[in-house]
Amino acid sequence: MTTPALDPTAFAAMFPALASVSTPALEGYWTMANGYIAESFALTGDRLQLALNLMTAHLAQSFQIINGPSGNGAGGSTPGVVTGGSEGSVSASMAPPPTKSGWQYWLATTAYGQQLWALLQIRGAGGFYIGGSLERASFRKAGGVF
User: Fold this and answer.
1) Strand partners of residue 92
2) What is the crossing angle of helices 45-67 and 111-123, to 10°?
3) What is the spatial distance between Cα 109 and Cα 62, in angstroms, rounded to a whole number?
4) Cα(28)–Cα(71) distance, rounded to whole angstroms?
């Protein structure tokens, strides 16, 4: 299976809020995205390209939240699901993970991650059957014997 390549122009058109991210940074996020997505989920073609683009966007936005848009460390935030806030004396409330796993919670911290999670739920599901007799994959063996 060949992994799709990053197309910075198409990426910027798809995610205009991240158009200011440099190409070297995008390439780094793309490499990380491949580590999370390419071999872990049974996606091919356009769906794999979309999943990699969404993971790259999620990583780029996560790093912007942490490091600030210019990458100078001025962001100082931790990605999380904000449930409330106030202006006087500055306070914010973060939600405890409303998800079943750390993976889901991490993806829920950006809109791109939420879109990726939805895609993976629809297209990445199914599982794999490894080894053994195919007859044992069902409730009964051939001939009706358990």
Assistant:
1) 85
2) 150
3) 8
4) 14
| Tokens 């198409």, located at residue | 10
Average predicted confidence (pLDDT) for the chain: 77
What distance in Å separates the CA atoms of residue 77 and residue 31, rounded to the nearest whole number?
24
Counting as low any pLDDT under 50, the low residues of the chain are: 72-74, 128-131
Residue of 75, 72, 58 whose CA lies nearest to 117: 58
Contacts of 107 (CB under 8 A, 6+ apart): 58, 113, 114, 116, 117
Q: Give me the pLDDT at residue 128, please.
A: 47
- For residues 59 and 66, give the distance between their C-alpha atoms in angstroms, rounded to a whole number: 11
- Where are the alpha helices (H) located in the chain, listed in sequence order? 8-14, 23-36, 45-67, 102-107, 111-123
